[in-house]
Design a protein that fits this description.
alpha+beta; 6-stranded antiparallel beta sheet; 3-stranded antiparallel beta sheet; disordered C terminus
Length: 193
């Protein structure tokens, strides 16, 4: 009984010293998310309308900015190479894209998915391809929504990290803070209760 009481007292003392954050949340930095995006997300898609249009899209160099411009949102920027072959000939363009999305934690998969994706800004090189790219953008936006609904922006590595395994098991919500995503282990936020 004394050992149990002593152990509980030590836990409470440690909790007070550390502010309880390690016991109530798991934080993913923007850099950690960006590293994962670089290693695991290369979007490649082909759209065809037989006899009229064949489009190939390759999205690379994804970078996130978490909670910096909009609360509860993630901004993604990246480059896209678009190659279009149509009855008018072949055209290629390089795009710089900016997307906004809401991150959502899927506890069962231990993964963060991006929902409510919206293409907010893009630039096209060469500029002569702008009119054609304007026509393609609604389709690209729909394809990106479908892609990120199936492909996570981050997956917890529960085999290598006990903290990640705990986060997957106890997650109650996801909070967006400037530069970080915080997986909460309780319904009350990061405070100790």
């Amino acid at each position: 009984m004394k050992k149990t009481l002593l152990g509980f007292s030590a836990l409470m003392f440690t909790c007070l010293l550390t502010g309880c954050n390690q016991l109530t949340q798991y934080t993913l930095s923007e850099q950690k998310i960006n590293d994962y995006l670089q290693k695991h997300n290369e979007y490649k898609q082909q759209i065809s309308i037989p006899g009229l249009l064949d489009t190939q899209i390759l999205l690379t160099k994804l970078q996130s900015q978490i909670g910096r411009t909009d609360p509860d949102k993630v901004s993604l920027s990246g480059d896209a190479k678009v190659s279009i072959t149509s009855i008018l000939g072949k055209q290629s363009a390089n795009l710089n894209l900016t997307l906004k999305a809401k991150p959502v934690f899927d506890r069962e998969k231990g993964a963060i998915f991006l929902t409510e994706i919206k293409l907010t800004n893009y630039s096209v090189q060469p500029e002569k391809s702008l009119a054609l790219m304007n026509a393609v953008m609604p389709y690209l936006n729909q394809l990106l929504k479908a892609y990120f609904s199936q492909k996570p922006a981050y997956v917890l590595n529960t085999d290598k990290s006990k903290s990640a395994a705990l986060a997957k098991k106890l997650a109650k919500g996801l909070e967006v803070k400037p530069g970080a995503l915080v997986i909460l282990f309780n319904d009350y936020g990061p405070e100790c209760s």
